[in-house]
Design goal:
This protein is α+β, with helices and mostly antiparallel strands. It has two domains: about 90-220, Cell Division Protein Zipa, Chain: A; about 225-360, ZipA, C-terminal FtsZ-binding domain (Cell Division Protein Zipa, Chain: A, 2-Layer Sandwich). It contains ten helices and 14 strands. The strands form three sheets. Strands 1, 2, 3, 4, 5 and 6 form a six-stranded antiparallel beta sheet that branches. Strands 9-10-11-13-7-14 form a six-stranded antiparallel beta sheet, with helices on one face. Strands 8-12 form a two-stranded antiparallel sheet.
Length: about 375
């Protein structure tokens, strides 16, 4: 083979190599362009494992300032087709804040912050959180700091950078005790490992002290007031009585009691026939007001007395106390004054009667 042929072959090899390298470079440029075009997708941001950790933010329900430390983990939402007014945005934020504090309430719950390693979707959190909803008879609720900067209940479709668990520290029957708290801590650590979070566990001694104080308040304000109706003649037939009570506005309950609706899906007061299911007659009715769960504005006691008087006239009955002594107007007025004082005490403790806090504590 001549020198000329060798030179031509060498040049061809160099040319083909250059073309190959050029094509690879163009392919690389095209791939990088595609990657950059889709690099703003939410899932890519949320799945980053090499980003610097989000600075820790202590739990707070001051939602107006809650977005200061979370810009690194925030995913900007897409703009809607229609413009949302500032009033609408504020209203939604306030609604989210109210709903969040009704679930995890710093006054009646032991709050446990959970720092997430990365932002996590609610769809992945909810199944895990459902495995820990109670310890003893104390409910556990969760809220999350959404990428919008608002604390809200964990929901499908939401994305959260922090969580907060809250276990109710007292109920009508008991305070949160050491055994329940230990169980909570153990199970919560397991749950945290599953979702990639680090819990900040409060000191048990402090929590037990707060739980006992709260239960002391609940026990001291667990008040129920009753007004009785005694037949002035023969006992009433239950079948006839049911019709009269339904006309008065009572709803029949499966346990044989009757409930007076408050107009908003709740109960204003109840009535018992004081006989077992299946009895044919009764001569004694009891109207009962669960004082801490009825808001003062509904005037539960006044409404109950007015209802008792109407029934007394319709059924030929007398209003009496638990000792079967007639209830005079002066006595009823005195009791009403005590009810008003009771409401003031509850309001002073930031647990107004009929509020979400009261309903949770006295359920």
């Amino acid at each position: 083979m001549t020198d000329l042929q060798m030179s031509l072959i060498g040049g061809a090899v160099v040319f083909v190599g250059a073309v190959f390298v050029y094509n690879k470079w163009q392919e690389h440029k095209a791939r990088r362009s595609v990657e950059r075009a889709f690099s703003s997708e939410h899932d890519d941001v949320l799945m980053r494992s090499g980003d610097a950790p989000v600075p820790r933010q202590e739990p707070s329900f001051d939602l107006g300032a809650g977005s200061g430390g979370d810009s690194a983990a925030r995913v900007e939402p897409e703009l809607p087709d229609t413009v949302i007014g500032a009033d609408d945005v504020e209203e939604r934020a306030n609604a989210a804040a109210e709903q969040a504090t009704s679930l995890v309430d710093p006054l009646i719950d032991c709050l446990i912050p959970l720092a997430l390693e990365i932002a996590v979707r609610g769809d992945k959190l909810i199944p895990a959180l459902h495995t820990l909803r109670h310890v003893g008879n104390k409910p556990i609720h969760y809220i999350g700091l959404a990428v919008s900067g608002d604390w809200e209940p964990i929901s499908h479709g939401g994305v959260y950078t922090k969580l907060q668990a809250g276990v109710q520290m007292a109920s009508r029957t008991t305070a949160l005790n050491e055994l329940e708290y230990s169980e909570l801590v153990t199970r919560l650590r397991t749950l945290a490992d599953e979702i990639g979070a680090e819990p900040e566990i409060p000191d048990m001694i402090e929590v037990m002290g707060e739980a006992k104080n709260l239960h002391r308040f609940v026990a001291g304000h667990d008040a129920q007031l009753g007004v009785n109706l005694m037949s002035n003649g023969a006992p009433w037939a239950i079948s006839t009585l049911i019709g009269a009570l339904e006309k008065q506005g009572f709803d029949v309950r499966p346990d044989g009691r009757f409930a007076m609706p408050d107009g908003d899906g709740g109960v204003l007061f109840t009535l018992s026939t004081n006989v077992t299911l299946g009895a044919d007659t009764t001569s004694h009715l009891t109207l009962l007001l669960d004082v801490p769960v009825v808001a003062p504005a509904r005037d539960g006691f006044g409404s109950m007395v007015a209802c008792a008087r109407t029934l007394g006239a319709r059924l030929d009955a007398t209003l009496v106390d638990d000792s079967s002594q007639p209830l005079m107007d002066e006595t009823l007025a005195e009791i009403n004054g005590q009810v008003l004082e009771f409401y003031e005490e509850m309001a002073a403790a930031d647990i107004p009667a009929g509020s979400t806090r009261a309903l949770r504590l006295f359920s």
